[in-house]
Design goal:
Chains A, B: InterPro entries: CheY-like_superfamily, NreC/VraR/RcsB-like_REC, Sig_transdc_resp-reg_C-effctor, Sig_transdc_resp-reg_receiver, Tscrpt_reg_LuxR_C, WalR-like, WH-like_DNA-bd_sf. Chains A, B: This is LuxR family two component transcriptional regulator. Chains A, B: One of its GO terms (molecular function) is DNA binding. Two copies of one chain form a homodimer. With about 210 residues, chain A is α/β, with parallel strands linked by helices. Chain A folds into two domains: about 5-140, Response regulator (Rossmann fold, 3-Layer(aba) Sandwich), CATH 3.40.50.2300; about 150-205, Arc Repressor Mutant, subunit A (Orthogonal Bundle). Chain A is built from ten helices and six strands, in the order βαβαβαβαβαβααααα. Chain A has a six-stranded parallel beta sheet, sandwiched between helices. The first copy, chain A, is elongated, with a radius of gyration of 21 Å. The interface of A and B includes residues 14, 20, 107, 116 and 164 of A. Chain A binds a DNA duplex (30 and 30 nucleotides) through α7 and α9.
DNA sequence: TGAAATATAGCATAAACATGCTATATACCG
DNA sequence: CGGTATATAGCATGTTTATGCTATATTTCA
C-alpha cells in the first residue's frame, strides 16, 4: 500500500523554494510538491488540503512572520503534518528555540543531500531528526556556553554601543579593572579573542 | 551551432547549491552543472576547466571569504566566464558594492524563475542584468549611506566577523597599512572613534 | 582634460586592549 | 555548613588600535 507522498516548501527566497521543490521531486521520489514564499498563501493551501499526510519544509526566517508561529498554526490546522525546519541559521540559541517547538526534524541548508533522505527515514519511524551540523552546534553550546551573568550582560550592552572600558566603567560606577574582568570572563565563555568577535557572538545569540 | 552550456554554482548552503544546480539543468536546459560549497574547491575546478564559456553563479556571503574577492580571482583565471551574483542580501550598500565589481548579472534569491531566464538572455546580448527587486532597492537608495566605497565595505565585513587588521589584511591580500587606511576613513565618515562604534553604525545601516 | 574620488602604502606615537596572574566579599544552593 | 558562582579589584606585560601625518597610482566624472 504505497501511497503518494506530498510535500510543500515554504521559503521567502523563491528560487530556493522552487529549486528545492524540484530536488524533492527528482531525488526523493515525492510526487506532489508545491513551493510557497508567503505564509498566507501557504496556510490557505493547508486549509484546503485537509488532514492527509504532508511533509512541510519551513524556513525560520520569513519576511513578516516567524517560522515558529507558523508551526503553531500548522498544528492547529493539520495535526498529522510532518514539519521539517530547513534553515540557514547557525546560532545555537536559534536552533535551540526551534527545537522547543517540537518539529519532526531540523535540517541545515548546509547539510548533505543524504541527510534529507535520512530525515525522511527518521520521520517514518517517528523519531526526531537533527542534522549532524546542528547536533554538533548544540553539543558545544550545551557544554561550554554557560549563560552570561546579569552584570556581564549589562557590561556587554555598553560594549555593543561602542563604549570603551573607561567609558563603561564610569557609566556603571565600576572600577575599570572590574569592567575588564567582566569582559574577559565573557570572552572566555564565548571563546573569542577580541571585542569584535564577542560582539559577533552576542549578535548571533540575540544578546544585543 | 548550438553548443552545450556549462554552469557552476557556488553556495555554502549545500542543499541550495545542489537544488539550484538541478533547476538549471531541468528548467534552463543547461547540460553540465556542478555545485560547490567552498571557494577553494571551486577555484581548483575553474583552473582545470580552461577558457571555455562558463556561467558562474556566486553567492555573496561565503564562510571564510567574500564573493567579491573571488570574482577578482575568477577574472584572472578565466576572463570569458559569465559571473552572476545570486544572493539573499538586500542591503543597498551590498548590492551596490557587488555591482562595482562588474559581474555579468545580479540576481536576488527571492526573484522569480522567469528572471533567471531573462538573465541568460541579457548575458547573451552582453547586457548587464539586474533583477527587478534589486533595481527597486537601488532606486530608493539612501544617498547618505552611499559614502562607503566598495573596498571599504569589503573590509568592514571582515571587521564585523571579528577579524583584526592583520587577519583582514591577509584575507584581502592588502597591506595592513591599507586596511588601517580603509578602516580610519570609514570611522571618519561614520564619525566614530572605535571599531565597536563603527560596527554599531554598520548594523544600524544594514551594511553587515 | 583636469579635478575629485578611490585604492594603495607608509611612519610615529599614545591610548586602549588582551591576558597572565592574584585576591576579597557576598550570595546562593544543597 | 560549605562549595560554587558572582561581583568586585588589582598588577604587569605584550599586542593592537587610534590618530596625526604623508604620498603615489588609478579611476571616475563633469
Amino acid at each position: 500500500m504505497k501511497t503518494t507522498s506530498h510535500a510543500v516548501i515554504l521559503d521567502d527566497q523563491k528560487i530556493v523554494a522552487f529549486s528545492f521543490a524540484l530536488l524533492l521531486k527528482r531525488e526523493c521520489g515525492i510526487e506532489l510538491v508545491q513551493s510557497f514564499s508567503q505564509g498566507s498563501e501557504f496556510l490557505q493551501f493547508l486549509r484546503a488540503f485537509g488532514k492527509q499526510e504532508l511533509f512541510i519544509f519551513l524556513d525560520y526566517y520569513l519576511p513578516n512572520e516567524n517560522g515558529l508561529s507558523l508551526l503553531t498554526e500548522i498544528r492547529r490546522i493539520n495535526g498529522d503534518a510532518k514539519v521539517i525546519f530547513l534553515t540557514g541559521a547557525t546560532a545555537p540559541a536559534v536552533i535551540s528555540s526551534i527545537l522547543q517547538y517540537r518539529p519532526e526534524a531540523v535540517l541545515s541548508k548546509s547539510c548533505e543531500l543524504s541527510e534529507v533522505f535520512a530525515c525522511f527515514e527518521a520521520i517514518k519511524k517517528k523519531e526526531l531528526y537533527i542534522c549532524s551540523e546542528f547536533e554538533r552546534i548544540l553539543s558545544t553550546y550545551d557544554k561550554k556556553i554557560k549563560t552570561f551573568t546579569p552584570r556581564e550582560i549589562e557590561v556587554l550592552q555598553y560594549f555593543s554601543e561602542g563604549y570603551s572600558v573607561a567609558e563603561t566603567a564610569s557609566r556603571t560606577f565600576l572600577s575599570p579593572h572590574t569592567v575588564v574582568t567582566h569582559r574577559r570572563k565573557m570572552m572566555a565563555k564565548a571563546e573569542c579573542q577580541t571585542i569584535g568577535q564577542m560582539l559577533k557572538y552576542a549578535r548571533e545569540h540575540n544578546l544585543i
